[in-house]
Amino acid sequence: MKPVQDLERAAEAGLQRVKAQEDVEEAEVFVSQNGTLLTRLNYTSHIPSNGVEEPKSVENLGVGVRAVFRGAHGRTNGFGSESSDISLAAIDEALRKAREGAVADPDFVSLPRPRPAELPSLAEYHDERLMNISAGDLVEAGWRTVEGALDVFESSEELLGLASGDRARLADLGLILGGDVTMLQERMAIASTSMPKAQSDQSTLVMSFITAMIESQAAKGGGCVVGTDLETNFSEAGRQAARGAIASVGGRRVTDGDYDVVFGPQAITDIFHHLVIPGLNLELFYAGATPFLGKFGQQIAAKGLQVYDEGADRGLAASKRITCEGLPTGRTELINDGMLIGLLSNDYEFQRILRDKNAPQKLGTDPAQHQLALAPRNGFRFGRGGGRHFDAPPGVSATNVVIGHANGETREDLIGKVRNGLYIGRIWYTYPVNGFSTGDFTCTVIGDSFIIRDGKLAEPIRPNTLRINHNTHKVLQNVIGVTAQRQGTILWAADQIVYAPEVAVRAVRFTEIAGYMETV
Amino acid sequence: MPTKVGLEFVDRAREIAKDIVTGDAAKLPGMRECDVRVEIGVGKGAVSENGNVKRAGEDYGFSLGVHALAGNGTLASGYAGKQLGTADTDRFHAVVREAIETAHARAVASASAKRRVQGRFGALGKSIASLEWAPVRIDQKTIPATYHIDPQSVSLAKVQEATLEASRLVSGLESSIVYNVVGASTSVIRELFVGSEGIDIDNTYAQTEAIVFVVARGPSGNLEFYDSLGHQRGWEILESGVRSGPIQDPGLLDFARQLGNDATQTAAAPPMKTTDGPVTVVVDPHFAALVAHEIIGHPSELDRALKYETAYAGRSWFLKRPGEDMRGKQVGSPKLTAFSDPTIEGFGHYLYDHEGTPAKRAYHIRNGVYEEFVNNRQTAALFGVEPNGSCRATDATFVPLIRMSNTTIAPGSDDPARIMKEVDHGYYISGHRIPSIAESRENFRISAMKVYEIRNGELGQLYRDGGVMADTKDFFMSIDAVGTDWRLYAVPNCGKGQPMQAKRMSNGGPTIRGRAVVTGASA
């Protein structure tokens, strides 16, 4: 990885080069270098396996130029990039592409301009060792996670019992471990005609997302850890998943019906990642495709529920110093006491909604009265499994989404409150099946789930035997309790980390599925 | 000045890669096999929104990937992927060499750790193995692209104009359309695979595609529809459409008009109510395409079946455990046949996969009996079958994974009109929307663009927010009619792997009749 100072100098020099062009009215130069390092895990006790599949990386470096041009056809703006080079030659090439592709976008106002009162608060929050990780350290991170799970499986009395007390037969139980350890190395710098000087940021992120199964028992558990440095306890994700799988042995089927539910952190993350967070993106309000259309300032969830995006907290793993638009990150309150009070946006969407004559209908209020709540704190160039990409203009992405409640309770309180119902720890394929606008969704229950009886966790629920067919509005409005304790949770292919509590919800609709699998 | 990146650079890359892969790379300690992939694409694209051009650009993509299998006694693999640029052309030899060394170092480190863990765990360490790659035919081939209008000859202005015209057309259809986006792109891509065993495949293809997204207002709220066009052909597919066998696509303007009209008509319809139980459903070829994708294609990927995807994309009910799989067993009605065939024309066409394996047709289900998984060299060796050339990556930076190609339900012998006429009461399920499939693909719910009631063989009331939900085997077994009207559609964004790779492919099918729950709105 190049030192971040090199990127900063390249951005500054690039800006001088671009703004010296006669036809350039405004310009922004974005320089970045990213590494996504990953070990994919695949251990199966009953099928020969590699344990750790190929340790791998995807790396990129380059420049992106956004520019506003004066021309015979008026004011146009364009974006161009060049890969694997941050020299002035690359800047020239990116500028050429931006000029050739420039369009007259009537919604474009200006490149992002910082607000004088807002300054970045984070500094030196990355792990330099992770920025320069060796092949051996990368590989070890994966294998330590496998070993964590195998340690739990090997020492489990329950599993030994299932293997008739014969350790040699543990493998016949069909033990599976899958998932990955992912490490992100991100360095970026940005210079703009709208900003006094070049700014830079460097961050590291470590995530491990693991699933363990005892396949002969149809038992499944999940685990994940997130952190920002190599001290992160990878093997804990493996241990957590293995413990979860063991706890799920002996799962039962549940019949169709409406059940009161406690959703675990992973299930809440799934619901928020696929259904709620996209609906809180200003872009979807503009398009009329959010389930919360016209509901800004209104009650969209049960009283007490709080949701915010926090991009600048050193203690939260996905924090950044600045956005990919060069603006300070910070907290965006999204839902407070059940009311929709803020949205995720970037500078383009922010400026566009302020000028949209239909905005009062789309939001349900005049955006000019809520500029702080719509401020562009989430303009990022995330994607492709990690990184801040020089070859894409900024979109809108969450960072750390934190879910809570004014009166957080204990897990025992929540389970006691539900009394008779279901604990749903892990769901999958949670999609807005009839489109975002309707709020309808469906998913299946795939592990870490239990029947709640007389206010206590009872038998596990057999994975892949229940489908939820429900609606986002009903979930949010029927929240009856939230734990004070939260867990940093990630999902496959998600850009943000959700700090999710356990949440109790009334009357969720379930359908029993796939009875034939008992006899296949 | 370094050499500019263009398709022709692959000629030089080919010589350099061959030289290193068969020379220095083979001398690295413990190196068993190594392959280098290079991909260069040149293309242009534009996006228009609500009748205004929003973005346009012309660029190249240049990527490198190295896969190594190495170790001292115990084998493991390592991978290095890098996005490259013009600055790398004159130093390409050093770039490839460095990537090979990185992939090799990772493989060797992993092999060493593998030995340690094998020894640390008794019974549970025994399954940790040195998985080999099955041998494949050693071919050297150069495959040219097919198109009428060379994507490189099309001006960026023309691409912009096409999206603008389509977006304006949609905006002007009805006042109930509140938002639309039209994107289009056209490219030529040249992929190189050079393996240490002598495989040398240079494959060039055209890729042209478009996406249309429409939001329409209705009495029950807004409704979003989106759909795609795509083919491994030139700009002609968006100008005048495709009429070739099962691919019967309109041009971009007609496609956008149809989607806009469908969105306004459906947004005005009442929401569907979920039926009490399974009913007769007739699904159109567009809906059947997503059924083929989600509940036949995906569970037929052997990596899923062998549990590699347990944490991500799920497992497969076609393989419960080793020695207990569905091959040779009835999983559907004798009317049901489905296959993956990369050798036929389609968005998922290729003749060699990204491991250099020759492509061929794999019948997943023939006359209702499960037959074959799609595989890669590692899983083929493990499963004791021949590699069938089904391992592909989104670009060379990514590790190839087992993917669908042109995966489809095969045409049957029934007249599509009669399939409907024979229904006293049921539902016609038209156009796929959004899927949600159970973890081993044993159950599914897929929403449709439009659901019509069928009464006495005729289409009746149109509903919005409808779809189909069923246990997979029950649905397959219930199929009692399969039409002759086979169609293949472009699917531009199938996600798999970590990091996620979005892959283009074709899926298809004919009109099919079976029984399932028809789902409705949950609000």
Rg of chain B is: 24 Å
The radius of gyration computed from the alpha-carbon positions of chain A, rounded to a whole number of angstroms, is 25 Å
Number of strands of chain B: 26
| Uncertain parts of chain B | none
Q: What is the tally of helical segments of chain B? A: 11
**Based on CA inertia axes, which overall geometry of chain B fits?**
globular
Label the structural class of chain A. Answer: alpha+beta
Arithmetic mean of pLDDT of chain B:
97
Helix content of chain B: 10-25%
Uncertain segments of chain A of ≥5 residues (pLDDT<50)? Answer: none
User: Approximately how much beta-strand content do the residues of chain A carry?
Assistant: 25-35%
Assign the structural class of chain B, choosing from mainly alpha, mainly beta, alpha/beta, alpha+beta, or little secondary structure.
Answer: alpha+beta
- End-to-end separation of chain A: 52 Å
Mean pLDDT of chain A: 96
3D shape of chain A = globular
How large is the count of helical segments of chain A?
12
Report the end-to-end length of chain B measured between terminal Cα atoms.
Answer: 62 Å
The helix fraction of chain A, in percent, is 10-25%
Please name the two chains that share the biggest interface, counting residues whose Cβ lies under 8 Å from a Cβ on the partner chain. A-B, 124 and 103 residues
How many beta strands in the DSSP annotation of chain A? 23
| Major sheet attributes of chain A | 9 strands, mixed
